[in-house]
Amino acid sequence: AAQAEGDQWRESDIWHEYGYSLLLLKRYEEAQAALETALEMTRSLEFDADPEVRHYQLLQESVILQHLADIYQEYGDPFGREFLEREARRPLRPESYYAVLRNLVSAYIGTRSNTLSERAIEVGQEWVELNRQMRGPGEVVEALRFSSWILSFYDLPRAVAVGEEALELAKTLDNPTPRQSVATVGRDLAQSLHAEGEVEGAIAILHDTIAYLRQHEPDDHWNLFHLTKTQAEYHRDIEQYPQAVQLNQENLALAQQPTAPLPYHQQFQTLEALSELAFLQENLTQALDYQQQALGQIEQYLADYQQQNSTHEIEAFQASFPSNSHLRLGFLHLQLRQLAEAEHHLLEALKFDNQYLSFIIASTDFSQHGSGRDEGTVNTFEPGAEIYRLLHHVYLQQGRLKDALLASERGRARSTLLFAKTKPDEDLKLTDSKVTFKELKAIARREKTTIVQYSLVYKYPHYWRKYRGKFARRDITDLIIWAVTPQGDLVQQTVALDEQAVELERLIRTMRRRLISNAQSNRAAPMLQTLHSLLIAPIQDYLPTDPEQRVTFIADGDLFLVPFAALQDANGQELIEQHTILTAPSIQLLEASRRNAQDNRPSQPALIIGNPTMPEVPDAPDLFNRSSLAPLPGAEAEAKAIAALLKAEPLIRDAATEKRVTAAMPAAEILHFATHGLLEYSSYANSLALAPTADEDGFLSVREITQLDLNAKLAVLSACDTGRGELYNGEGVLGLSRAFIGAGAASVLVSLWAIPDQPTAALMTEFYRRRAAGEDNAAALRNAMLVTREQFPAPGNWAAFTITGAVD
Q: How far is 421 from 787, CA to CA, in rounded Å?
């Protein structure tokens, strides 16, 4: 009909809607064809003279590009960034280039990659200049905000400067949109200053912004409330508690006014803030009273909400705030040693949290999220992990040892397990862990391993440990150690770290720094012995005496960064001499890895990659002092030697392109990468370096790996820092190892730091020789480490490697 009427804009719009519908149905190739038709047609048409119609036409092209970027995300191009970069290089009219750059800015905000930082900053700056040329001051304010966001990942002082410019411009606008308002821009600037550690400056900005609102927009209760709330939080962070209390009391009065936009919501948030402040001032009774009032506000809101909204909307609300409120009450009752009350509230919190997770997973269309399914949901599992952590402490104090261990285990790696059980083309479905002690014993017996699980006891809840930047409170008071033997014996020990004045995080980081910085000697020996006394000695008598028997360490927090093989007893004997060592983020993940080993059906024996032609890394010495990735001749020799053992043809230099490698990965039984590994601002941008092509940048990122369907029995990441990444509450390390397990690999061998080429090549060659002789992966790694240690004695040369998963 549109063609008959000659309405080409309407025809383009129909192609767009058709393509979007196909995208929702996950028919990506058909959707791509329809959307490309819509895009080319839109770009060929003249714009209408009417400003409103013209605005719609310009927006249509931007939305089409966004949906195409979503499709390329499904093809393995995170956020569609490479697709958008190709579009930006095409000869386009200014309006079309504007639409491309709008989407490209969003892609770089999502990517958060140090490697791509220079280009990201350049795109942000270009977006500002393009808006100065083509749009009004309001759009320039928005562009400055985007540029400041990008800079905040890499260069906070410059982010602050851009934010200050945006704020001054925002004050000149007559009719700003919410995204252009002084309130929004002022809050952004304050957040940048707070992240920089300039809290007094952040408080001053908030004070001035609030004063501006009271003068120019006194009825803007929403922004007045939230700006005051943020100001109170910043006073709290620098322990100015009286000022924080006063501001929250002012907010409580504001929320109780008849004109307050969301009175229940604002009241319970303020009461929770007052509860936190009472706790920090060691007034637990008052903290509990405030938190109980907050829960009362939520329950009243729920009662009113149920009378006014549909069942679906009620479910969405029930799945948010009540869980957090019960969690806070459970924490406070635990501090007061009111264990029955603590258990009650934590179980209520868990019930609501499971509703929340189920709702999020069932209602989110992940094809519309550039971050992908895993990255789009991992944050939602953190509160549940904290609930289980606190239940673990409650049960332990009640003497319910098996329940305590089960609570500790059920809170671990929940997101990882969900994705390990779900193929990329399957819908996600949450199943809460109901693992039993009998099943844990069966896993230990089947894997022929003694399981040692660690759980850290923190002084403060997770929302004080993680989301407060430089002002996070991560004090660790105790270390709980569990041991489960293949025979089913259960042992529990508690190490009081605060009584021993041990700062565990500092100890681990100092140990690593000394270990990594010296390849000639072991300057970390005293710290390795201290860690042995804390982590191993308390359960030493329950570990196997046969060094060929396995011990699997389930770490927690910074313990994931510990090289267990290098820990030394009081006599200087290293743990690798006494045990065959594995690591894992949870006991249940051993079972998931075993299932991968049984289900995987590789059709090719091995894919060996060594010394690819390295992709270019933008040189940004003012930010990171990083340079282009150097060739790795030792990695090339390593790959050739291993390929000869496995009777495979290695992909070397130009042959190891990202496209060729990713196409071959799903079929391979063994994956071996001897290349550079890159740690990024976002762990989902962590990557392995491969040869670039015209269409691909050569960085195989976590985001891309998680979208593959692997059949590998073993993945070896012989590269720098492949076992590292961001530490998430309950999930462990978000990085390359987790990505390969989640994508289907049965076992993964990674490194905790960068090892020189020569010992790496020696260790890897010996590892594969021993596998060929019939040793399982864990035994082969142990013996390869011992052989390498003879030639390169310093632990920095051999102790970085660790293996997880099903090793036989």
A: 37
Residue of higher predicted confidence among 372 and 250? 250
Backbone angles phi, psi at 629, to 5 degrees: -70, 125
State the average pLDDT for the chain: 89
Do 677 and 701 form a contact (C-beta atoms < 8 A)? Answer: no
Name the fold adopted by 223-308.
Answer: 1.25.40
Give the whole-angstrom CA distance, residue 446 versus residue 122.
54
- Residue-wise over 432-467: b if at least 16 C-beta within 10 A, else e? ebeeebeebbebbeebbbbbbbbbbbbebbbbbbbe
Q: Whole-angstrom Cα distance, residue 524 to residue 506?
A: 13
Phi, psi of 667 (to 5 degrees): -90, -15
- Phi, psi angles (nearest 5°) of residue 612: -60, 160
Report the Cα–Cα distance between both ends of the chain, in Å, rounded.
63
Q: Looking at residues 627-632, what average pLDDT do you find?
A: 76
Q: What is the DSSP string of 367-419?
A: GG-TTHHHHHHGGGGHHHHHHHHHHHHHHHHTT-HHHHHHHHHHTSSHHHHHH
- Rounded-to-integer distance, Cα 413 and Cα 239, Å: 34
Query: By the 8 A CB rule, do 174 and 134 touch?
Result: no
Q: What is the pLDDT of residues 335-347, one digit of tens each?
A: 999 999 999 999 9
pLDDT digits (tens, 9 = 90+) for 175-209: 999 999 999 999 999 999 998 899 999 999 999 99
In angstroms, the CA 452 to CA 552 distance is 6
- Residue 176 CA from chain centroid, whole number: 34
Sequence-ordered list of residues with C-beta below 8 angstroms from that of 294, at least 6 positions apart, any chain: 267, 268, 269, 271, 272, 275, 325, 328
The burial of 185, by beta-carbon neighbours within 10 Å (0-12 exposed, 13-18 middle, 19 or more buried), is given as buried
Per DSSP, the residues of 418-459 read: HHHTS-TTSPP--------HHHHHHHHHHTTEEEEEEEEEES
Bridge partners (DSSP) of residue 732 are: 728
Q: Are strands 490-496 and 732-735 parallel, antiparallel or unpaired?
A: unpaired
Around 732, how many Cα atoms within 13 Å sit in the side-chain half-sphere? 31
Task: Give dist(CA 359, CA 430) in Å, integer.
Answer: 9
Rounded distance between C-alpha atoms, residue 526 and residue 24, angstroms: 58
pLDDT over 90, % of the chain: 67
What is the C-alpha to C-alpha distance for residues 664 and 660, in angstroms, rounded to an integer? 6
Residue given tokens 């479905």 in the structure block: 429
What's the burial of 253, exposed, middle or buried (CB within 10 Å: 0-12/13-18/19+)? exposed
Tokens 């140990």 belong to residue = 511
Torsions phi, psi of 556, nearest 5?
Answer: -150, 135
Query: Among all chains, which residue has been given the structure tokens 């042995």?
Result: 532
CA distances from 375 to 71, 115, 370, 654, 706 (A): 17, 19, 9, 31, 10
Query: Tell me: the pLDDT tens digits for 425-445?
Result: 666 666 666 889 999 999 999
Can you give the length of the chain in residues?
808
Backbone angles phi, psi at 477, to 5 degrees: -100, -40
- Measured distance CA(545)–CA(542) in Å, rounded: 9
Question: Rounded to whole angstroms, how far apart are CA atoms 783 and 767?
Answer: 8
Under a CB-based contact definition with an 8 Å cutoff, are residues 552 and 539 in contact?
Answer: no
pTM, to two decimals: 0.89
Euclidean distance between CA atoms 35 and 753, whole angstroms: 44
**Residue indicated by tokens 């290293």:** 574
E strand spans, 467-541: 476-484, 490-496
Do the beta carbons of residue 721 and residue 753 sit within 8 Å? Answer: yes
Note the pLDDT of residue 17: 94
Q: Judging by beta carbons within 10 Å of its beta carbon (0-12, 13-18, 19+), is residue 401 exposed, middle or buried?
A: middle
Q: Which two tokens mark 252?
A: 């409580």
Q: Which CATH number fits domain 599-805: 3.40.50.1460, 3.40.50.720, 3.40.630.10, 3.40.50.2300?
A: 3.40.50.1460
